[in-house]
């Protein structure tokens, strides 16, 4: 599990149920989602105003399977958002 802790002590992570072991969760925000359209699956940011993101920004597209899109989504978020 990758965690990012900012100067205020706020912990950011990809949600997993075992995060509950860290204590009370104050908030959960969707960072991205996977959707299908003719031509394949795509990954799109949901838009977190705290981080200056804009909803609708595609970070990957044309995946032949949902599993490939989900794997890409997790890898991208871990690399780009949990530094």
Described by the principal axes of the CA atoms, the overall outline is: elongated
List unreliable stretches of 5+ residues. none
Main sheet?
Answer: 3 strands, antiparallel
Q: Could you tell me the radius of gyration in angstroms? A: 14 Å
Proportion of helical residues: 10-25%
Separation, N- and C-terminal Cα atoms:
13 Å
The DSSP helix count reads 1
Oligomer: single chain
Domain count: the total is 1
Mean pLDDT: 86
Number of strands: 5
- The structure class reads alpha+beta
The largest sheet has its strands arranged as 3-4-5
Question: How much of the residues is beta strand, in percent?
Answer: 25-35%
Order of helices and strands: EEEEEH
Q: Key terms for this structure?
A:
single chain, 83 residues, alpha+beta, 3-stranded antiparallel β-sheet, two-stranded antiparallel ribbon
Question: What is the secondary structure topology, with strand pairs?
Answer:
Layout: E1 3-5, E2 11-13, E3 32-37, E4 40-45, E5 58-63, H1 66-81
Antiparallel strand pairs: 1-2, 3-4, 4-5
Folded structure, characterized:
This protein has 83 residues and is α+β, with helices and mostly antiparallel strands. It has one domain. It contains 1 helix and 5 strands. The strands form 2 sheets. The chain has a 3-stranded antiparallel sheet with strand order 3-4-5, covered by helices on one side. The chain has a two-stranded antiparallel sheet with strand order 1-2. The protein is elongated. It starts with a strand and ends with a helix.
């Amino acid at each position: 599990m990758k965690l990012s802790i900012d100067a205020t002590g706020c912990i950011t992570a990809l949600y997993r149920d075992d995060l509950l072991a860290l204590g009370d969760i104050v908030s959960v925000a969707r960072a991205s989602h996977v959707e299908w359209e003719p031509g394949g699956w795509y990954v799109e940011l949901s838009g977190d105003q705290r981080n200056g993101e804009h909803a609708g920004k595609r970070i990957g597209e044309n995946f032949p399977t949902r599993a490939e899109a989900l794997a890409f989504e997790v890898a991208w978020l871990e690399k780009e958002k949990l530094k």
